[in-house]
Task: structure prediction
Amino acid sequence: MKQKGLNLSRSVRQNIVLLALILVEMVLFTIMNGRFLTLYNLMNIVRQNVPNVIIAGAMALVIISGAIDLSVGGVMALSAVVYGKLCVWGVNSWLAIVPVLVLGVFIGWVNKFISETLGIPAIMATLATWLASAGLALTLCQAIPISDPEVKPITVLNATKLFGGKIPLALFISVFFVAVFLFLEKRTLLGKYAVSIGGNANAAIFSGINVRRMRLIYFSMCSVMACLAGIWQVARLGSADPKIGTGMEFSVLSACILGGVNIKGGEGSVLGAVIGVYLLAILTNGMQMMNIDDFYQQVVIGIVLLGAVLINQLGSMYAARKALLTVGKKAAGNA
Amino acid sequence: MGEYILEMKNIAKYFAGVKALDDVSFNIVKGSCHCLVGENGAGKSTLIKILTGAHPKTKGSVLYNKKEFNPTGTREAMQAGIGCLFQELNVVEQLRVEENICLGLEETRFGVLRGKSNTKVFDVLRRIDDTIDPRQYIEELSVAKRQVVEMAKALAMDSNVIIMDEPTASLSEEEVRRLFEIIADLKKQGITILYISHRLEEIMKLADYITVLRDGKHIATRPISEIESRQELIQMMTGKVIVEGYIPNAADTSQTLIEARGISNRKLKKVSFDLHKGEILGFYGLVGSGKTEIARAIYGVDDYEGEVVVKGSLGKSRSARRSLQKGVALVPEERRTQGVCTSLSIASNTPMMNYKSVSEKGILSKMKQGRLAREYMKAIGIACRNENQSVMYLSGGNQQKVVIAKCLNASPQVLLLDEPTRGVDVGAKQEIYAIIRELVKKGCSAIVFSSELPEILGLCDRIGLLYDGELKVILQNTADIDSERIMHIVTGGVDVER
Amino acid sequence: MKLTADGLQNLTILGIFIVICVVGFLLEPSLFISSANISNILVSTSSTIITASGVTLVLITGNLDLSVGGVGAMAGVLFGLFAKAGVPMGLSAVLAVLCGMLCGFLSGLIISALNLPSFIISLAFKYIAGGIALIGAGGAIISAGLPGNIGHLGRVVLGIPLPIVYAIVIFLIFMFIQNKTVFASQCYAIGSNMGAAKLSGIGTVRVVSTVFMLTGILAAFTGVVITARFSVADSGVLPGFENDCIIAAVLGGTDINGGRGTVFGMIIGALIVGVLTNIMNMLGLRIYTQNVVKGVVLVLAIVLNNTIRKKVKV
Result:
């Protein structure tokens, strides 16, 4: 009895729905404000959301594997400040990126240590790391953004525009990292193992998967991406501002959930998270165009997040109920 | 007779005062289907756990291909070639079939998955069941198909021995037939099957060899050709069942406390019975026969079609709270996850079903709570330091007594007990039986759901026999009840004495 | 006399508290012991004590409430807005607290009825409530146009700042609730073993909704009091407040997984955090640096809990 038709997973079907939603959004906002659909505006959206999109892929894998990383905002700030300091101390702008990445790996290890080895739930563990790294960032620069000239060279990343000055480098950077994470998810074991660990940890262990090592990998990837995001923000702002990354964990988390990543783990995709990022991005941009205050945006995103979680859960409950009834019918049929 | 792939020599396993296995020795022929039978508590699960490395053995040795075999964990056993299909299936629902089968066995180069699909996987799967599309997601598959996937996985890991623990518990007749075909196929490939089941009809069809365990001891290992009939098997499984201590309770058949009609749901098929005042009704059946499902349906925590009428109240009970109000209390099957709050003290656990007994207008009286706990501790005999001791440090039997105390405190007219003495030592078992009898003497009734025949025979006035979700018959208990007939019915046999 | 895990925990943190006080005294002998400083510590700790009384119960049920900072800010701002709009000060306060109550009740209901992880739901509410606060105050603060009696609730009476009185009254009430009510017993049961609690007939939806509702009320009240104290409705008030509450509760022996904890312990925990903050202020550490310390303290507190529990087998 072969399956007829397309054998799409729930994730893929969800993604299609999300893409449709994006289209709806774009149409709506274009109607409300002609300036929405301009290349300039769209590219702005891309530029503003580089951090979100590069972290989202890694965060998705962390959540799918059953954990969570709330420290990304603080890590962004810390990486920005550390980068700034390194530049000021004379390290070449490009070489300075390397130690910052190493810092990312270290923070990933700290997260894994506190959550796995000390047995503290990932929420609390990464909350603590967030507190510490955000605070450390401010401490290192005494709350004063580092805007020395040594920090400026990196801004070329933000300023570069290709194809006759129309397409910013940001687009290519975004596409690059999305491609990388899609590759990691589908073409290496990372994606599959994340689903296994999050879906049925016992089965994963029986199959020989080293859960601790995988957790370390997922946490580290997330922190490293957060570090890259921090450096990107320095490039955008032209200074290493310790306030970088504020609220990022919330945005990325919301994007992942909107994108169909199940907060309980075992379900979701990188693509979904990426689509979620742009869903939110277009929403906020559209609201900005309609001159709605930033603060309303926060409320809207909160409500959207709630809605997404509720819909996700109700969907699962409905599917479970359906399965129960089907099995029941089968049994009754046998009686 | 072929060579032995597994040899069990004087295996013994002791748990705190209980001999789960006592000097068990037998051999398993390579390439055969070797069935392990015995009642609950006979030691089958323990033996399997030792073979797969989940528990260490206390004494004895296991030879695997003539070499000493001492796995430290299930994974080690699996990698050595002993695959086990447990009742809780070890598949990841959100992955596809092929992904599950090669989970942990993927071919990679520098971490990147190899381009071409793993044809070995497809082969393995197709050989067992070519109707399963490897690209399907596990969550879409029925239990039977999931089992097939697990088997394919065991094969993909090059297992020489595949252990199956009650595999047919949730399968339809057709699926069972298919499973047997698969097993026959596997044997042809030289794989040894160790098959545990209660369903004697199936065993008779399937087995090359049968080993009977009883009370942790090895009774016999015989090739199927030497076994005449299921009666013989049943005799070996049950031995001489001494119906000790059965004293009929003063049941008042004119008063019905519970009337159940046509209870049906995912597992149950139109179960109907009456419970009379002052009697102990027993439900006996083996794994998967539906005991817990009936208990939960009566208690209102599971959905069902049909009617359960509790004397003196109207309406269907849809929650534990409602049932308690109607005077029905449940001692659940799983003590640690459903019965007691292990991190809390005895005194905190006892009043949980009826806080009114220790409080007034919502204000708890620690004094009353302590006194209540002490009263029950004395009345039921809970061995502990004091009422403030955390339940997690009590023995299984004493933990169970705390659960019973909790239920008794709700002043129920009907007490449901699901596997009341599972994991409880012999002494505590008798004490619990005494408690149940005391309760019934005072005018209540009890329903005992159990998979231990001596328990049922010793306690209950009437016994309902379950098989595969159906209530086959209700027998009146007598001193010379036919336990073989009982075993015959609960293992799927057709009851001729109607 | 045998020591329970709770007893040992309380003794340990009492010890830590004394040590910290001694350290404070040694650092700045005259400054630390002065009545002004002690009053300072107590007033700033009062916010934590008030809200963490509820947060402790939430943690006991095995849940997390990350929204208290947002709810507090929202209530503080709403209080200011209502008062500015002419609503009598007392009524404004009540209305603001009712909003917090609603917020809490909704979170608790969603979490328990739909079986959703509490951290994400409370996180969403944190941003919603926080957003409302920002909207109400235009992203800044409301100081102009507030009635003269806005500070009434936060004033000093007979030399004692009212917030300290509130803290004492509330913690006494919640200590009573936690120790002596059926409701609290049900909270412990739910946190210890949800399955057993449900089978025992405990109305888990009712209890969890109530516990979140209570915390919402307390968080809102805290926000109102802060507005009163400074006569300014600050939309950015109480950043990281939820962390302080959780640290206080955890230090006080509340298990992050539920089923254990006491309000009394939380108070000692809150005082430790209060004194620690005071010392860090005296040392000139900026708030952000203090956060680093707090992050480490949070982790250490949980580790301490776990260690004590493993050591004491009762």
Notes: Chain B has a mean pLDDT of 85. Chain B has two domains: 4-238, 252-490.
